[in-house]
Specification:
alpha/beta, 10 helices, Rossmann fold, 7-stranded mixed barrel, single chain
């Protein structure tokens, strides 16, 4: 006898509202508001991934941004249980404790969600987290505009009543710009947090770290000490770490001056260090390179990068708006490790003499293949572990 288990199905509740997305160039997109009724301001960006909206929305790198998903149908598998945690106390299905993006833009919201792991619908989750969403707009036109003109400030408004777009435009004109915001006090822990009790320590400097990074360092066999973004080198070394990870995060790396100071000393002291995304940019700046803002960033799950050491191409997951200037690397002790095959931007650097490596992509993100997990093993090699593998 075959037992058939019914797959949970839920209907959307917080939908059918007024919704408008207003860009700073005056463009207005009108659609159906869903989630929480509120007004937010942030940088409009787009992600080309086909799945993973729960992971994307909880990624601290999206702090201060209104996220557009280019995949045409979103929400059909709903949201898993937000209360679920792993053995280290990290949320099982999310990259942080809450939704980090300020708003969500989709072409079509699936108003019926069905999945074996379903706990709530996407609109219910946004409502609980007080985040607005808009559906029913031409995300192709929006994405084309952002690719052509570059990312720009926007306001997303969801309301039970008609929305005055002229008023929104006036408020948007004086709203704080994304580049001027300070994100570290929002996304970083205030006090050290410990994950695991056995093994040697690896310190993770939290500039907006994803849970998947913490999990992958734990899988290497180390206990993780997660410290605030502005922790001094002396405090870091007090944990006697075997290595250090500088994490991903939002905003302009030049604003992380205290993390940069720490990174310089990590380089000077030749402590095995891995930088990821924002952490890569911080290490580059600490080593004498410079950074710049990309026109529309790299956000998606299909960004191809080539390892210049073995000429192998990897398909990577990425989420960043800033990048290391490749020309500036020539005046540093870093060499180019990975390069983006689409636009030749810097995707990884390796110190010529010291145990310092960094990647611009997210090796911990696994929307499909697990190809880039080896980057964590590279850290293990720097530490001197003989059982490190690729």
């Amino acid at each position: 006898m075959v037992r058939v288990t019914e797959i949970p199905t839920k209907k959307a509740k917080h939908v059918g509202k007024f919704g408008k997305l207003v860009l700073e160039d005056g463009t207005v997109f009108e659609g159906m508001g869903f989630g929480y009724s509120t007004k937010v301001f942030g940088e409009a960006v787009f992600n080309t991934g086909m799945v993973g909206y729960t992971e994307a929305l909880t990624d601290p790198s999206y702090s201060g941004q209104i996220l557009t998903l280019t995949y045409p149908l979103v929400g059909n598998y709903g949201v898993p249980d937000p209360a679920s945690k792993d053995s280290d106390g990290l949320k099982t299905h999310f990259e942080s404790e809450r939704i980090q993006a300020r708003g969500l833009v989709v072409h079509e919201l699936s108003q019926t969600a069905s999945h074996w792991n379903l706990a709530m619908t996407l609109d219910e989750w946004l409502y609980e987290e007080k985040v607005p969403g808009i559906s029913g707009i031409d995300t192709r036109a929006l994405t084309t505009k952002l690719r052509t003109k570059g990312v720009m400030m926007a306001s997303l408004v969801v309301s039970e009543n008609e929305i005055d777009e002229q008023e929104i435009m006036r408020e948007l004109a004086v709203a704080k710009k994304y580049n001027d915001e300070e994100f570290m006090d929002v996304v970083s822990v205030k006090e050290p947090q410990l994950y695991g009790t056995e093994g040697e320590s690896v310190v993770v400097v939290d500039t907006g770290v994803k849970n998947a990074i913490l999990r992958n360092v734990r899988r290497l066999g180390y206990k993780v000490v997660r410290v605030p973004w502005n922790y001094s080198i002396e405090k870091i070394l007090s944990y006697n770490p075997k290595g250090v990870v500088l994490s991903n995060g939002p905003g302009d790396p030049i604003k992380c001056k205290k993390t940069m100071d720490t990174a310089r000393q990590l380089i000077d002291k030749n402590i095995p260090t891995l930088g990821i995304c924002l952490g890569a940019q911080i290490l580059g700046l600490a080593g004498g390179a410079s950074t710049y803002k990309l026109k529309y960033g790299h956000r998606g799950q299909n960004k191809s990068c080539i390892d210049l050491e073995n000429k192998q191409v990897y398909v990577t997951s990425q989420n960043h708006g800033y990048c290391i200037d490749p020309e500036s690397l020539k005046k540093t002790d870093f060499k180019l490790w990975f390069s983006n095959t689409d636009d030749n931007t810097v995707e990884g650097i390796r110190h010529k003499e010291k145990k310092i490596i960094a990647v611009q992509f997210h090796p911990e993100a696994s929307p499909g293949p697990f190809d880039c997990m080896f980057v964590f093993e590279e850290l293990k090699k720097l530490i001197g572990e003989e059982n490190a593998k690729r």
